[in-house]
Design a protein that fits this description.
single chain, alpha+beta, 21% strand
């Protein structure tokens, strides 16, 4: 049995165009992928990865404190995780 990881992207200003990307795995390789992927999500307390939030620091992937200053621990996590994304 194959397992799939899907991601879709669409923008209203794109005229209705949408893109879907997929990665297919056999069960063993999917487990290997999750072994690397799940700790990244868990570290941010995120159920899913959204590049539109992760890279600019939005949603669950915020790197700023309530006063607007950058949180050094979260910046370090971002730097580490951005290089570890499988």
């Amino acid at each position: 049995m194959l397992k799939a990881y899907l991601d879709r992207g669409a923008k209203a200003q794109g005229g209705g165009l949408m893109c879907v990307a997929a990665a297919l795995f056999d069960s063993w390789h999917y487990d290997l992928f999750l072994h690397r992927w799940q700790p990244i999500l868990d570290g941010w307390a995120a159920k899913a990865f959204h590049a539109t939030d992760f890279y600019p620091g939005g949603g669950k992937f915020k790197r700023k404190r309530s006063d607007g200053s950058l949180d050094p621990e979260l910046v370090a996590r971002y730097e580490r995780d951005s290089h570890e994304i499988p």
